[in-house]
Amino acid sequence: MSINIEKLECEKFAEFYNLLQEGNKICNLTTILDREDVFIKHFLDSILPEEYFEKRANCIEIGSGAGFPSIPLMICREDLKFTLIESIQKKVDFLKQAVHKLQLNAVVLNNRAEVLAHEEKYREKFDICTARAVAKMVTLVEYCLPFIKIGGKMIAYKANIEKELQEAQYAIELLGGKIIKEVKYSLPKNMGHRTIIIIEKVKKTEKGYPRGKGKERAKPLLEKRKIDESNCIDRTPHIKEKF
């Protein structure tokens, strides 16, 4: 994956940075405030996998927060259309302001993914569902995959992923997904390592998912462990024969 910092040399990125600074005074949008850190850890990190977003893709973002990766992606790619889902009203207000001032092709919804995913208007209607720093992978796939049409993709931004990905294998298959690509890269100036996980939607998600009421986090879809017979204790009653 090539790193093109020149894409950040854009008036809209400078304007977005200023909006973040002002918005952070009202709502905790990010703890990263230094200009260089924001441009690399947030902006550059968001746009690195833009090659995996097809032209004119209809995208949805779960847990948008301050608008990463959606807003940097739309600044670079005017062809992309986004629906942003955020449950915290102050962050929704910030996102609407940013979308308006930066003239981006997006709508912002104040709601929860596990609720909207059951509405016909949104269920399995999107080419791409993406999320960054939202939840563990096993939880995230239950939020995201119900929104994606068959043939579409989930693009997850992650840091340490090995254990999470292994844990999520059962849920990915159960919910209709298939991992097709894992892309690793390093940010400039030793600012961290990242992994992009791309999952293709290969079959419909059963109607009961996402389960809602916090079950996605509290009771993740983990594969039931098989009983190791070698460690089982024989509790069959021992009957002594009488002679």
Q: What's the helix and strand layout?
A:
Elements (H helix, E strand, L loop, with lengths): L10 H13 L11 H13 L10 E5 L7 H7 L4 E6 L2 H13 L4 E5 L2 H4 L9 E7 L4 H8 L3 E11 L3 H13 L2 E10 L6 E9 L13 H4 L25
Parallel strand pairs: 1-2, 1-4, 2-3, 4-5
Antiparallel strand pairs: 5-7, 6-7
Helix content: 25-40%
Helix/strand structural class? alpha/beta
**H-E order:** HHEHEHEHEHEHEEH
Terminal Cα separation, in Å? 79 Å
Largest beta-sheet characterization: 7 strands, mixed
Spans where pLDDT lies below 50 across 5 or more residues? 226-243
Structure description:
The protein is an alpha/beta fold. The chain has 8 helices and 7 strands. The protein has helices at 11-23, 35-47, 70-76, 89-101, 113-116, 137-144, 162-174, 215-218, and strands at residues 58-62, 81-86, 106-110, 126-132, 148-158, 177-186, 193-201. It has a 7-stranded mixed β-sheet, with helices on both faces. Helix 2 (35-47) packs across helix 3 (70-76) and helix 6 runs parallel beside helix 7 (162-174). The longest helix is centred in the N-terminal third of the chain and has 13 residues, at 11-23.
Summarize the structure.
It contains 8 helices and 7 strands, in the order H-H-E-H-E-H-E-H-E-H-E-H-E-E-H. With 243 residues, the protein is an alpha/beta fold.
Jot down its keywords.
243 residues; alpha/beta; seven-stranded mixed β-sheet; 31% helix; disordered C terminus
